[in-house]
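Narrative of activities, Objective 1.

The group set out to show that a structural description can be obtained from nothing but a protein's sequence at a throughput compatible with the screening campaign. Below is one input-output pair from the validation batch, recorded exactly as produced.
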Amino acid sequence: MTVPSGSTADPWPIRPLLAALVDDTSLLQPRAVAPGVDAVVSRYLAARDGHYGGLVGRLVCPASLLPAVVTELARSAPARPADLALVVDTGLGAVPKALSTVFSRSSLLTPSTVECPAPPDVDGIWLERVSEFVPDEVTPVVEPRRPVPGDEEGTEAWLAAVRKVAEHGCTPKIRMGGPRASDVPETEDVHRFLEASLETGNGGMSAQGFDRTVREAPSDDGGTGRHGLLNLIVAVARMTGVSASPAPVPDALECTDGEKLARELDELPEAAVEQVRTVLPRCGVDPEPVPIADLVALGLLD
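Output recorded for this entry:
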């Protein structure tokens, strides 16, 4: 016998800047450390249907784990379908079958995006193939492979790929962190990614791999500090010209003062918030997908 998931607690209002912002990317963690599919699905549904459920975005799911996720959702009998970001980890040829599974279980899942890594030499033909696989109501998200730090020629090729992805109507994606130090891009690379993504004016961008709300200071040994979720939001506000702050974009990415970042976001007018969220509709966060305590402490959640 299944018990419908969800909380009886009344949801608390979430400001538009943060509404449905935070995706749960727990299933993308390395298999050796990732929680079980049952634990992730249970936690996602509880968070989505809890007091701060308006903050919760999509459940990000590799195509290889889709059958297990469907099984757990069926067992949980959610009150409404889970918003799904499907990550292609088994080749583009697997996309039609995966989407067929998602559309056939409409009481459990609603497809939002199909996300896939791009080869270093991504071209228009490959991007057209992606677009052919993805229905009009689903957003194609493409992550061009970022080179190792210090490879300027590779970086220029990466940025060219980002522009090409945006020009073809797909959403470029950047990985802001991960289990390896090389998963954390330099601030300059993040800034250049933002510039490349927004040059065409065709749409927005996607980011995942955040494991903190505000950037941490670099370590004493010279290691790169981990990027913060709020830092990127402020950077997008400055990049699009809707922030009142005259400070440059890289300063927002480097800032370790959470209260300062929160105050700048507080001052954004309604139209500015809408523009920021058009550019940055969702962000992937792990290992704690909903950073409620941090946002409450900074006054961004009641």
